[in-house]
Amino acid sequence: TATAIMEAAEAEAASARAEAQVAKRLAERKGEEAITAEVEKRDAVEAAISAREKAEKQAAVAVAAAEEAKVLATTARAERDAAEQTARGEAARALKAADAASDA
What we know:
Helix content is 98%, strand content 0%.
């Protein structure tokens, strides 16, 4: 019976070693999954930061373009006003010349 007890203990020890190996493999797999999850999380954060930076740059370009358009519009209005003023002055001179010619 001592042999049977010894064999049973050896069988239990072998079973415990096998369970320990399975547990070790499972822990390694979980560790790998955790590392993968961390890498994916980091990649997602980096992608979000990159997207935000890109959006900020695009917004800055849009603001600059809007400011330039505003300046161009102001310049165009000033040029139009100056041209109208010049045209009025020339029309007034032409009328004076026509009046002078009709009086003469």
